[in-house]
Amino acid sequence: MELNLIYHMHCITSVIINCDILFSWVGIYLYLVTVNKILTNFKSNAQL
């Protein structure tokens, strides 16, 4: 019983860690996309 509970907690922890990693990658990706859009807009405005 005790062992089962520990295993279950370990699984939940792993899932949470994986979600954290996934969310940080999504955050980095969105940040890069936003920066890229701003830079593109800035360049096209500078050319006008």
Termini gap: 71 Å
Q: Structural class of the helices, strands and pairings?
A: mainly alpha
Q: In one word, what is the shape?
A: rod-shaped
- Figure out the total of helices: 1
How many distinct folded domains?
1
Biggest beta sheet attributes: none
Give the low-confidence spans: none
> What's the rounded overall pLDDT mean?
89
Q: Compute the gyration radius: what is it?
A: 21 Å
Strand content: under 5%
- The string of secondary-structure elements, in order, is H
Number of strands: 0
Describe the structure.
This protein has one domain (1-48). The longest helix has 46 residues, at 2-47. By secondary structure, it is mostly helical. It has one helix at residues 2-47. The N and C termini lie far apart (71 Å).
Topology:
Elements: H1 2-47
In short:
The protein has one helix spanning 2-47.
Write a concise keyword list for the protein shown above.
48 residues; transmembrane helix; rod-shaped; membrane; transmembrane; mainly alpha; 1 helix
